Amino acid sequence: MDTVDKCPICGNENFKALLEGTDYSISKEAFKIVQCSGCGLAITNPRPQEKDLGKYYNSDIYISHHSNKSGLIPWIYRKIRDIQFVNKTAIVLKHFNRNVSILDIGCGTGNFLEYCKNLGWTTTGVEPDGDARKQALQKNISVFDLDYLNNSHEAFDVISMWHVLEHVNNLNEKLEQLYRLLNTNGIVIIAVPNHKSFDALHYETHWAAYDVPRHLTHFTSDTIERLFNKHSFVLNSIHPMKYDSVYVSIKSEEYKNKKSIFNIIKGVYVGIKSNCLAKKSNDYSSLIYVFQKKST
Ligand SMILES: [Zn+2]
């Protein structure tokens, strides 16, 4: 296990306990989440060493994603995914009224980039999982492994990370890469869970979006803005991901109680309640942040 002694944002060395999470989906092991006394950033600490993280990922879950299966649940999954593609690209279209170049970090099997490509955009993906990369290549997407982020001399109009930054081990290094790979007037789009949401506070240790130890950092709108400000980005806008609260609440019910129709309905109820409350607080279960480079 690796212990982080200094907060990656503010350098403070004092952490207080936030809660203990459990890896419900794979190892069933418990992991502590602590919070920096200086800036409030929450991190999984201690955490598995980088070389051991792979065994906490079940690549089946990350790859199949109901893409080709028949039945009602896969059909709903695909419908929601398609709506999300429209919502995600709408954020880009607010900033650019032309075709853009987009780099999607953690692109998986490339479904989102395939959608972007069909809009006429220039698409590049980065994906650490070799099997997922192979499937993306079959869609004629240019996709590379993580080395690309260090070695590429290209720059992009848009860099997206959909539920990826919370998995990243070295945040400061990643933010430097983002800065270098982004055009002067470009945007970075980051989607991450928000542990200040109602569903997070309701499910507490059973909240599925803590997802330890795969999630190494647990953001709020305050801490992610601090991190990006530190690296000369400014926040442009925040957008809700309204389906995530329902999905995460159903999963959390499963972890807290067990899988049953009754608990699925309860999860849907908590998810919808979370969205209603977030209309005022803006603390949705997951949020999309748009950052730009600070003008110099
Ligand atoms: Zn801190």
Summarize the model shown.
The protein has ten helices and eleven strands. By secondary structure, it is of the alpha/beta class. The mean pLDDT is 94.
Task: Provide a descriptive summary of the structure in words.
The chain has ten helices and eleven strands. It is α/β, with parallel strands linked by helices and 296 residues long. It has a seven-stranded mixed sheet with strand order 6-5-4-7-8-11-10, sandwiched between helices. A four-stranded antiparallel sheet has the order 1-2-3-9, with no helix packed on it. Helix 9 (242-256) packs across helix 10 (261-281). The structure holds zinc ion. The site of zinc ion has 8 residues, from loops.
By helix and strand content, what is the structural category?
alpha/beta
Bound molecules: zinc ion
Major sheet details: 7 strands, mixed
User: In DSSP terms, counting alpha (H) and pi (I) runs of 4 or more, how many helices?
Assistant: 10
Overall strand count: 11
